[in-house]
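Data deposition worksheet. Section B asks for the primary sequence of the deposited chain exactly as it was used as input, without tags or linkers unless they were present during the calculation. Section C holds the resulting structure in token form. Section D is free text for depositor observations; keep each observation to a single sentence. Incomplete worksheets are returned to the depositor.
Section A, Depositor: J.P.
Section B:
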Amino acid sequence: MKIRAIITGASGMVGEGILLTCLNHPEVEQVLVVGRRTCGHTHPKLREILHKDFFDLTSIEQELAGYNACYFSLGVSSVGMSQEDYRHITYDLTLNFAQTLHRLNPELTFCYVTGRGTDSTEKGRIFWGRVKGATENALLRLFGERAYMFRPAFMKAVPGQKNLLRAYPWFAWIYPLGRRFLPGGFCTLEEVGQAMIHTVTRGFPKKILDVKDIVALAQE
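Section C:
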């Protein structure tokens, strides 16, 4: 199966790593990046739509049809935000985008990047964990067997990335040690991208993937 993927968040570190992995993968034939800012890359497989309001997709709906995968890594930090604003951006925005894609592409596989600390019970003390958990649960209900929740921790960048976190160069040296001694907390963004590709082409029995699951699926 050839993959036609929509990627969000490609102007950030995680989304850009997934994008570059997809562009270099033979099973991916087309990538559509949807974002508020340009991803900064060009490639024969790549098309980009700049769109400011993810709560109103009316003007670009026709451009979102005909895809069989979405790799969604758009998100914000909860630091300095009210609980209401964080939920609006994290839960409401994600579900609006996902529901539109599901209506246009009923067979689409949806991969959502959350992270360690996400609370599936939606009852924990940390509010961002509850919101992320609620978002995961809603996506699992919406897409069923075609939904995969990715919970990575420390991720090593893909060569050629431009959109790194500001602090990343200060901590990149930790990766080799972490991968060796704490493998459950360290993976590469290339592995994240490869695992997402394999959810479409191979499937995976678990719908919520931690680091060890991501690495195992990437290597299949």
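Section D:
Residues 83-104 form the longest helix (22 residues).
The CA atoms of residues 51 and 121 lie 33 Å apart.
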